[in-house]
Amino acid sequence: MNRLESYFIAVVFAHLGVVLVHTIAHLWLQILPAPPDTAFILAVILIGPVATLPILRFNRTLAAALLAVVMGAAFVYGFQSHFLIAGPDQVAIVSSDPWTLVFVATAVGIGVLELASLAVAVALFGRSIRNPWEYPERPR
Q1: Taking each helix axis from N to C terminus, what angle separates 48-58 and 3-28, rounded to the nearest 10 degrees?
Q2: Is 107 exposed, middle or buried (0-12, 13-18, 19+ CB in 10 A)?
Q3: What is the pLDDT of residue 46?
Q4: Single pTM value for the model
């Protein structure tokens, strides 16, 4: 396993952890998404990144491409719902509650981790298409 694959695994697990804390803040603040949003959140934000981990073992090009797609989609969805569109999920409108700070901090953290994951996925994808047979690479 190379360094980029280690970063790949680390950002996926960090993202999952922050998303779970953000979910708890959502529940505590009683900000419940609509059914279509719930389906997207479950499929793309929770399951999608974790599903790339077993794929990484056998096909790092596919895993990197899939992670880039789901993290890009997750970032666009989260950024617009947390920061752009007025609604119950926007961080500027959330009620004053001790969990509000957790909600806002995790919303920002999720966005940062999604961008970091996207960067790692693109770098790993680029490296894997330059080295398609996955021969050991020269140390850099």
Answers
A1: 160
A2: buried
A3: 96
A4: 0.89
